[in-house]
Amino acid sequence: MQARPASSTTPTTPQPPAASHAAEPSENVKPLSQCLQPEDELEVLIRARYPIIYVLSWEEERVEKVLADIATARSKKFYIWTYTQGIVRYGAEAQRSKSGTGSTTDPLAALDAVLQHVEPAIFLFKDFHPFTEENRANLAVIRRLKDVAYHLRDTYKTIVIVAPVMRIAPELEKDVTLIEFRPPSAKDFNKLLDRIIEDLKDKPQIKINLDAAGRERLTHAALGLTLKEAENVFAKTLVLDGTLDADDISIVFSEKQQIIRKSGLLEFFASEEQFSHVAGMDNLKQWLIKRSTAFTERAAEFGLPSPRGLLLLGVQGCGKSLCAKAVASLWKLPLLRFDVGRMFGSLVGSSEDNIRRAIQTAESVAPAILWVDEIDKAFAGSAGSGGSDGGTAARVFGTFLTWLSDKTAPIFVIATANDISQLPPELLRKGRLDEIFFVDLPNEAERRAVFSIHLQKRRRQPDKFDLDTLARRSDGFSGAEIEQAIVSGLFDAFSADTDLDTAMLMTSLAETVPLSKTMSESLDRLRTWAQGRARPASGDVVAAAPAARRKIEL
Which residues of 18-54 are buried (b: 16+ CB within 10 A; e: fewer)? Predict the structure, then answer.
């Protein structure tokens, strides 16, 4: 490659002709068509002499470490700019370098310093994104950045901007290349664990109890955290009990809970329900148990995709929400409650932005379970929302449906619904959710199990009650109605200063009119729709009431 004297801004560094824009020579440059990791893509862009690279990431330290390695491998200087320190050499003490670079704290002065620098170098700009967004106050910085981008094409210097959000003015779109650093993978967390274990090997009071399976559970629980957040939460577990093992998943989830709380759009639901608290639903339980290991590395190597989600349709009070909470305990995953009501804001466009932010927040803590309770009420009338809210509900629902179809993050969606007539047909299409289960009223055996579960929850021994009689007497009752009958009996027993017995429960049942009688027509219509369209959650489904036949005389 024929060299020529550089321009006045870089007088001592030989450069290729500007028109050719030749990349830095390397025998091992990967083709850009190849799917690259962000770290590798960043190196390729620097070698190809892209002048300004915008890295979208919350992890400044991680990006800084990657760039330091690239600079070392390419024999380049590495500098870091911040609004408080200006441009400093990587690894220099901030207090010592402050007096020498205080003038470069101004963004325009910093960009001028980049132009005046002679040697090949990488400049990492932190805190710079407020100066790259479309704003009248940023006109000078944006214009200067465009000038710098033009001149850097003829040098071996690169500017890298790292920011947690994308703020790129339209004028810079053709000069700035965007890279998104995905959250750390399980491999990254394994390296972090190796380093922690190595650092603690000389401390016998610290116990590390991690076999291969426990290590995989812990690293997968940490997915969605940054390396710094993961390091903090692992240190927290060591401080709390002096051990690091697979049982520390709950502490990892507490760190994710902080992320959810800060968003304000999703609710981290700390579920204490166990799968044993769900009576019946044998078909649904088997379906969920088979997929309990679907998020593991072994499942991925086997060729299994992550399960997408399911819709639980059925009678009110029959355990749909309870099942969603119990799945989180079974799969050892955080449970996020998606409240659609929080999505709708008063400002134009804020509702669409809110649901996108909620989805991004859920994906940032994946793998996780996203619970959308009563989705039929949440999106009711979305198809005809143009005349009532300017189509906001339709656009929000469309964004949600598109995400269901295209999502690649391991987010398992559990949607519950009571009224199938309120559900848009687009939601029921295969590919958005894996399966639709119909949850009917409990049969006699399931009602007996419901009585046993709720009596145990209230510190009563089920074998002291006539469960068979109670199960027969509660025909047509939902699980929630049986629970309330027990609560009502407990009030009667407490006011009478005696203990609960079967007779009091029978009285409570006699005083209760179940919803299956109050709304029998709606229930029959729902059962009729579910036959042949949804899988029964239990082994047997109560048949729909036969239609009345016309009687004639012959």
Answer: eeeeeeeeeeeeeeeeeebebbebbbbbbbbbbbbbb
Give the domain range for residue 231: 186-263
Chain segment 389-404, per-residue pLDDT in tens: 556 777 888 888 888 8
> How confident is the model over 11-21, as pLDDT tens digits?
444 444 444 45
pLDDT score recorded for residue 162? 96
Strands 411-417 vs 368-372: parallel, antiparallel or unpaired:
parallel
What's the pLDDT score for residue 29?
42
Cα–Cα distance between 219 and 185 in angstroms, integer? 9
Cβ atoms of 217 and 332 within 8 Å: the answer is yes
- The pLDDT of residue 508: 93
Q: What are phi and psi of 526, to 5 degrees?
A: -65, -40
> Which CATH number do you get for residue 500?
1.10.8.60
Q: How many CB atoms lie within 10 A of CB 300?
A: 13
H/E stretch holding 220 reads helix 212-222
Examine the domain organization and report whether 82 and 124 are in the same domain: yes
Compute the average pLDDT of residues 242-269.
81
Compute how many other C-beta atoms are within 10 angstroms of the C-beta atom of residue 390: 11
User: Looking at residue 407, what DSSP letter applies?
Assistant: -
What pLDDT score does 387 carry?
A: 45
* Cβ-based neighbour number of residue 121 at 10 Å: 20
How many domains are contained in the chain?
4
CA dihedral of 181, 185, 187, 189, whole degrees rounded to 10: 100
DSSP secondary structure, 160-181, as one string:
EEEESS----GGGTTTEEEEE-
Can you read off the two tokens belonging to residue 480? 């929630």
CB atoms within 10 A of CB 205: 7
Residue 382 within a domain: yes
In terms of domains, do 456 and 384 share one? no
Instruction: Give the sign of the dihedral formed by CA 415, CA 417, CA 422, CA 426.
Output: positive
89 lies in the same domain as 148: yes
Lookup: tokens for 502? 């079967």
pTM of the entire predicted model: 0.69
CB neighbourhood size of 386 (10 A) = 11
What's 430's DSSP letter?
A: B
pLDDT at 115: 93
* Residue 414 near residue 269 (C-beta atoms within 8 A): no
